[in-house]
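Quick one before lunch.
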Amino acid sequence: MESNPQTSVGTGKTSSEKAVIWDMDGIIVDSAQHHLKGWQIVFQKRGANYTEEDFWRNTGKRSDTIVKNILGEKISSDEIMDIIREKDETFRQLMGKDIKALPGVLELITSLKEHGFKIAIASSAPIENIRLITQSLKIYNRFDAIISGWEVTKGKPNPQTFLLAAEKLGVEAKNCIVIEDAISGVTASKKAGMSCIAVTNTTPREELQEADLVINTLEKITIDDLENLLHQRSSYMEKSLVLIKPDAMQRGLAGTIIAHLEKQGLKLVAVKVLHLNKALARRHYAVHKDKPFFNGLVDYISSVPIVAAVFEGEEAIAVIRKTMGATDPAKAEAGTIRHDFGVDIEHNSVHGSDSIETAEKEIKLFFTEDEIFGYHPETGT
Ligand code: RTP
Ligand code: MG
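Model of the magnesium ion complex:
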């Protein structure tokens, strides 16, 4: 018996490490027909029909979800476990005779390890299936972490499986690429804030468009393609400082403004209430120090306690500037924060950084690194 791949919990804060997280069924092996057969046998015994269409609709989902989808929510958890055990035993008997890696898989795993990528399996399958397949392909020990469907409370399309994989690997979500064939897996990877390559092994191309890259086979994927995906992603992901200005604070609009920004898909990664002193106000608005309105602006922003926040997301800076609207509320487009809540050019409710460089400087004025939490959109958990 081979030893367990490393499963220690990382800090999640390392920045240079990168990882590829593999789905197993439909990506590493073509196991669909054996799964279908296994399900058909157990469902038939219980008087339910399980068509190929049912099968494809449920692909990528965890077994307990599939049982409930077919036999109804009322079924007891003991019975669910019996059905799944029986199905998996049948599956492993059928699969055991027929384990072949899909084209390009073994070569890509070797190449990833040579190029310093960490690799994990994050599958909805039980650990017995993962062991059977990876041990028979002699790749079990190559993985730095293995997550089975039963280690999470919510299966794909919830992002938990992938977030746990990233945590075990000690690699930030934005530096992870998921390889998936199922729609639920692609959705989970995007909710986890990861890049995604979808392979059309089991699902038509047009249904996988949420992925960053859709390909027909892993044979053609190169390390350069993967590096490009990560680079593309890191250039989209931005942080921006947002201040809720005194006029909005005095009218109790902080929550409303934060909600507006969250609705744009931005994530709140740091927030505090503070009363700016003049020195901090001057440093924050230093670019305007020679403008006639500078002193008034400094007095205003330091007049009462305000909210400072950091938002993160794809092109966060542009998204926030657009959501805020023009500096002068009178010129701001309808529906923008400044149009809806701003009073005049000074009392314009909100500040947002205007470039990547200013965002970096401004965030450092208000927050230490420990106060900022990385992109970690654990939706529904
Ligand atoms: P902010 O920095 O506050 O997000 O606003 P912004 O980028 O849209 O505008 P910016 O040009 O950076 O100006 C900073 C703040 O100065 C005040 N201002 N007053 N009286 C004036 O002509 C004038 N021009 C700018 C505004 O309160 C603006 O938010
Ligand atoms: Mg500005």
